[in-house]
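PROTOCOL LOG
Step 1. Enter all chains and additional molecules of the complex.
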Amino acid sequence: MIRIEPYGAEALLLTLAQTPSPDLPGRIARLADLVQQALGDAVIDLVPGWNTLLIHYDLLRYDLADIQARVTPIVEVWRQEPEAVQSPSRRHEVPVWYCGSDLESVAAACSLTVDAVIALHCGRDYLVGAIGFAPGFAYMGELDEQIVLPRLASPRPRVEAGSVAIAERMTAIYPQASPAGWHILGLSAWPLFDPQAEPPCPLAVGDRVRFVAVDEATYRAAGGQV
Amino acid sequence: MRGLKVIKPGPLSLLQDAGRYGWRHLGVSTSGPMDRQAAAWANHLLENPYGSAVVEIALGGVELEAQVDTWLALTGAPLGATVDGQAVPAWSRFCMKTGQRLQLGFAQAGQRAYLGVVGGFVAKTILGSVATHRREGLGGLGGDGQALRVDDVLGCSPGLNAFDKALGAASRFIPDYRESPTLRLVMGGDGEAFAKEQRERFFSSPWQVSPQADRMGIRLQGDASLEPPVRQWSLGVLAGAVQVPPEGQPIVLMADCQTMGGYPVLGFVHPVDLCRLAQCPAYHEVRFAPIELEEAQSDLKRFYRFFKNHEMNLCAD
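Step 2. Run joint prediction.
Step 3. Record the structure below.
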């Protein structure tokens, strides 16, 4: 069931499925392209989520009734499209030094050893489902269900840049020091965002990521500074 | 480039334009002024295009020396400004000549003042904007997200001939930041998933601005704790969204907010009222009242048209 609803005074939220599926991120990227082509510069930003597409629009061009009238038929066309041809997805290997402050609490909460948590975290490929929260912050999933935990009840004021974290069925790396509501498992020196690079972010929605456990020396040799 | 030399930068003074748009799909925050209304007034008084670069001055404490002859405008929190010891009226434009010093005291009410200059301050754009986002390390004079520092020069063109007289905003446009504002809220997001009595509690309770407040978000605290529903999948968020984490005390997202979030969203503060919240110090009381989306949209369109079309007749000498 697709829902189209206002999301504040200057945005429209499309909820495209109840729960995400492996092909949905690529499909949502396709929908974002269709919306961009149809609405042009009346679109300010398009933010794909796991099962959503948030359209930030120019209120001086379209009010809610206008934008809904324009977007609804685009979604209908998209829904009836055969499985969209997706841009070839890349696979990245991302080194992680598993030294996180929450490793032991995560292990305890999941009734696992720390080694088992690490093995489960780097034991599978993850799909980039969305990029957001901070520049280059890629939401990746899905975690092995043995290490699925809710977010922290109250976010921490600060974690270090490169912190590798988990929450719910997702994993991610914090590209900058920032507040964080996720559980921290380790650190990575892998570059995630450079405004001078083209594109500024090496990961794209639909890419696959595999974490590789490394030691502190390898992390530091790669430029890790924490 | 010559301009205004920073003698004292104050606790947190940031270059801001309308914001960094078009990059939220990579997680880049829009940033921009916390109080868009006061920033827009600074540009308006100088007949600058909407979103020309201004300096957002948190709390005050700034001293600048002019290297050019030009006109400036100061709006937002009143700071007791002087040019070479002569008082400058709040919410007005005034001229400054080479060698003169602008001194700004500390805010008696409100949190942030906005300093504009004829033509806007000039800096290299990063991803299309000079807006400073410190955590992301983007924008500002050096492009790396730094606040103003001693000996920085805020580049600007000479503009002494732009005007022949001072001008201020009519008093009815100048907010009284000492008042406890009622912030209008458009329901949406996960709002319907909150129990009815939870929504009623949110609107009927007074809230206080928590000391945990910055350009990213303003936490509220109150006796009435809310019980949010559970949201599993992160999605796009924006300034004004009221997030309710499991502990039950709301967070209003502000100019430097993340592009996506996972906490349930109760609704959206009217973008114009968000300007008012940006001026509330810690422990200031705020309340919320519901508003229909159509009303919020027509109101906001008026706001944009006013500042983008330069309706100068609404100013007074």
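Step 4. Note key features.
Residues 1 and 207 of chain A are 26 Å apart (CA to CA).
The longest helix of chain A spans residues 64-80.
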